[in-house]
Specification:
The longest helix is centred in the N-terminal third of the chain and has 37 residues. The termini are far apart. α5 runs antiparallel to α10. Helix content is about 80%, strand content about 0%. It has a single domain, classed as Growth Hormone, Chain: A, CATH 1.20.1250.20. With about 375 residues, it is mainly alpha-helical.
Length: about 375
């Protein structure tokens, strides 16, 4: 391996490490915010509103942020996002009640969007196109680690310390990415040289591309399933009397499954096409959601979360690889921004809708509705894979 290749490899590993720290803040804060709001007597609708605020600003600004990372490079958006995570997760330490949570979740959502979108843009530029699927699998593996650690850390801290102590501990984690990025310690990709020559048709042109449009639709359904798990499991667990630690363990089992399946992704990718994997993921996720309201014991809930993690964990690397292969030259950041806008529009609206349904009709109709939507998505993905 040449010196330049080794340098790129070390930089990419460091980038994944920074992502693990920042993503731990996001996943840990979701659990902490949900359980703190519930401890203050909040309804599922209020909790749904708080979870939706993670997606509100990203829904509005993802495309412009993607264009910005194409134009100026990824370092500054990543640094700004890391700084925002520190401030956002620390806000509840300086107020009382649930009011500070509304500002906190809004800032956390837009800050992680800045970091994540720039990271995904950078990942597509590490190595040749033949290594793209592997690189996105490695990035997803890193997020699986933080997806495991965040809820588990939050649950243990809540049970053994306090909500304020949990928020304070999470606020320490992004300080390391801030220090590394501020010092310019990583050789990250700069501006996209093709950006100035890229077509100027804007978002409508990207959405008119049938291949991109299919990827966007499938990814929106998968992301809805992912976010609904992190949203409703704390509510469901609290309703059936589980402790914060046990809820954290259930959420962590989901992340453990995403890690396990992503270790196998290179072999899976060699044996199956992207749409075959996505179709299977949607059908399995739909069946799992249908079973959730029928189970109240920790063991079976962990098994269902693990199964859901296997399905959804296999999908994201395939989606990102497809997106980078299809996106027009010089507009990768913009295409990722469109994807993130669609995802966050779903993430913003679905908790509000299903939070209202859960407050009036109970949680079972929520789980079954999501399961039906995912099954319909599986049919759509199977047809898309044949065209």
């Amino acid at each position: 391996m040449s010196h330049a290749a080794r340098t790129r490899s070390h930089t990419f590993i460091a980038l994944i490490a920074l992502g693990i720290l920042n993503h731990t803040v996001l996943t840990g804060s979701r659990v902490t915010v949900s359980l703190f709001a519930l401890s203050q007597g909040a309804s599922p609708l209020v909790v749904g509103t708080l979870m939706s605020l993670y997606a509100f600003l990203p829904m509005l600004f993802s495309v412009s942020t993607g264009r910005l990372s194409d134009r100026i490079g990824v370092r500054r958006p990543m640094l700004l996002g890391s700084c925002g995570l520190v401030v956002g997760v620390a806000l509840p330490c300086f107020g009382s009640g649930i009011a500070p949570l509304f500002a906190s979740t809004s800032l956390l959502g837009v800050s992680f969007m800045l970091f994540q979108l720039a990271t995904q843009n950078a990942t597509g530029g590490f190595g040749p196109p033949s290594e793209r699927a592997k690189n996105f699998s490695l990035l997803a593996l890193g997020y699986s680690i933080s997806g495991f650690c965040g809820p588990l850390l939050a649950g243990v801290m809540i049970d053994n310390a306090s909500f304020v102590a949990t928020f304070a501990l999470l606020a320490l984690l992004p300080l390391f990415p801030v220090a590394v990025l501020a010092r310019g310690g990583l050789d990250l990709p700069g501006p996209q040289h093709d950006h100035a020559r890229a077509p100027s048709g804007g978002v409508p042109e990207l959405l008119q591309n049938p291949h991109l449009r299919r990827v966007f639709i499938v990814n929106a359904l998968l992301s809805m399933a992912w976010d609904m798990h992190s949203f409703f499991i704390p509510i469901y667990g609290a309703r059936i009397g589980l402790s914060a630690s046990r809820i954290g363990v259930i959420l962590a089992s989901f992340a453990a499954a995403t890690f396990a399946v992503r270790v196998l992704m290179p072999r899976i990718a060699r044996s199956f096409s992207e749409f075959q994997v996505l179709t299977t993921a949607l059908f399995v996720a739909g069946a799992t959601y249908a079973l959730f309201p029928l189970v109240e014991r920790v063991g079976p809930l962990m098994a269902l979360s693990f199964t859901l993690g296997l399905a959804l964990g296999s999908a994201q690397p395939m989606v990102m690889s497809l997106l980078h292969s299809i996106a027009p030259a010089g507009r990768m950041g913009e295409a990722v921004g469109v994807r993130m806008t669609i995802v966050n529009a779903s993430t913003f609206g679905v908790p509000l809708l299903f939070g209202a349904v859960g407050s009036t009709l109970g949680l079972a109709p929520v789980f079954w509705s999501v399961g039906a939507a995912l099954a319909a998505g599986g049919i759509f993905a199977r047809r898309a894979g044949k065209t």
